[in-house]
Amino acid sequence: MLSNPDSVPFSATLHVRDTCLCLHVQRAARALARTFDTALKPVGLNNGQFSLMMSLNRPQPATMKSVCDLLAMDRTTLTAALKVLHARGWIGSFIDPKDKRGRLLTLTEDGRAVLAKALPIWEATHAELDAALPGGNADQLRDSLKAVS
Questions:
Q1: What is 46-148's CATH number, 3.30.1050.10, 1.10.10.10, 1.20.1740.10, 1.10.3720.10?
Q2: Burial class (CB in 10 A: 0-12, 13-18, 19+), 71
Q3: What residues does the HTH marR-type domain cover (predicted)?
Q4: pTM (2 decimals)?
């Protein structure tokens, strides 16, 4: 059999499959996203929208930059996600009086009501997931994920 110096052995594929942190985190993220999407569907939210709305649940309106930083999201992606929530009347945005180039974001009264319905669903779903972790140590997993993010 001829050896091809440009080929990668199948054993390397198996090694990556079994050890790649990025692959395992991506798979887990997709599974968690599906779980929360299903759970939050009755209130008309998906997991990303829930996280976005929670990021706006603060005493003062949020800047686009602060939300992008919190959610590790670029401005274009945030703008697209906001359009859906704005069309539903769940968020408001207005020009930042301190910086006319920027916008401030806030939850509307309807948005707060939806978030109030969604939170108990999130809490119950999260409790089930936490309990299902080996050793029930969700805090250790969170700490490990924070260390690499």
A1: 1.10.10.10
A2: middle
A3: 18-149
A4: 0.87
In the chain, domain spans: 46-148
C-alpha triplet 93, 98, 103: angle, nearest 5°: 20
Task: Find out whether 115 and 54 touch, Cβ atoms under 8 Å.
Answer: yes
Which pLDDT tens digit goes with each residue over 33-67? 999 999 999 999 999 999 999 999 999 999 999 99
Q: What percent of the chain has pLDDT over 70?
A: 97
In this predicted structure, the answer to whether residue 118 has a pLDDT above a threshold of 70 is yes
Strand partners, 99: 96
Measuring CA to CA, which residue among 117, 111, 107 is closest to residue 59?
Answer: 107
H or E segment at 90? none
Separation CA 18–CA 142 (nearest Å)? 21
